[in-house]
Specification:
This protein is mainly alpha-helical and 167 residues long. It folds into three domains: 2-46, no CATH class; 78-127; 135-167, no CATH class. Helices cover 62% and strands 8% of the residues. The chain is built from six helices and four strands, in the order E-H-E-E-H-E-H-H-H-H. It has a two-stranded parallel ribbon. The longest helix is centred in the middle third of the chain and has 36 residues, at 61-96. The chain is elongated and about 75 Å long. The chain starts with a strand and ends in a 5-residue tail after the last helix.
């Protein structure tokens, strides 16, 4: 028995919108997938099992892996879209509060992230990182330093120091 999920239907609907969905025999639909069809006013039709189909076909493991990879890829792309939107909203907020220089730097990061997302869609390597004129190695070193410095204990200590609380 196979279950059709909302993510599968979204992927199919995105490439080729439909008004009727035919559910194959020995296939069930998840509640989320059913709601997806209802929201788009798509008719759900259960196909009748054919009499010649006596041998039950087992799903191929490679097709299951492809479906899982497809779901993982869709999830990654959705996360990447949200991150890119966050970059641009942050830049807009910074511009609104008058910090045009920092806003421009965040926009540059957003543009680079868009290139990373585009490279993922095209299944190619993204272009080299260029930020503040730093090399990729300098960025990695700075990240290592910031990871060590930005522990919750250090952040709380800095916050208390800023508020003139006893440390």
């Amino acid at each position: 028995m196979r279950f059709v999920t909302e993510m599968e239907l979204r992927e199919i609907y995105k490439t080729n919108p439909f008004v009727t969905y035919v559910l194959a025999p020995d296939t069930k639909i998840t509640p989320g997938a059913r709601q997806f069809l209802v929201d788009r006013r798509v008719a759900l039709v259960q196909a009748e099992p054919q009499l010649d189909e006596v041998v039950e076909a087992k799903p191929d493991q490679s097709s299951q892996l492809e479906q899982q990879e497809s779901w993982s890829t869709l999830r990654l792309r959705g996360s990447m879209d949200r991150i890119e939107a966050t970059f641009f909203l942050t830049a807009l907020e910074l511009l609104h509060y008058g910090d045009a220089v920092l806003s421009e730097e965040v926009m540059a990061l957003g543009r680079y992230f868009r290139n990373v997302r585009k490279a993922e869609l095209e299944k190619t390597a993204p272009s080299d990182i260029q930020f503040w004129g730093w090399t990729e190695e300098e960025i990695k070193n700075a990240l290592r330093i910031w990871k060590n410095a930005l522990t919750p204990a250090n952040l709380i200590w800095e916050w208390k120091k800023e508020k003139n609380w006893p440390c």
